[in-house]
């Protein structure tokens, strides 16, 4: 597992999932709340993955230039960022346009049905 991630599993979970995952969640929230498109979450989270690789290298003697480690970091961070983006985008649509949209679950909204 260490060869795949470029770091020990505990370091990967601590730095990538918890620390940088929190940053990815805030990134998704910020992009959704400012009405920007989802592809920007992907771009920012890839930059965060590079930051995660550097922190693992600088603080925990992990491999900096680990392609599989970078891809694992990027996949986890992009997933967290996109989940946050969708959650806050749905929330924003329902709050901003309550006469037109209603929640259809945690990750979806739908148009309100008109009676008439």
Automatic annotation (TrEMBL):
Residues 9-112 form the DUF6867 domain. Keywords: Membrane, Transmembrane, Transmembrane helix. It comes from the Bacteria. This is DUF6867 domain-containing protein. It comes from Inmirania thermothiophila. The chain crosses the membrane at residues 6-26, 38-60, 66-88. InterPro entries: DUF6867.
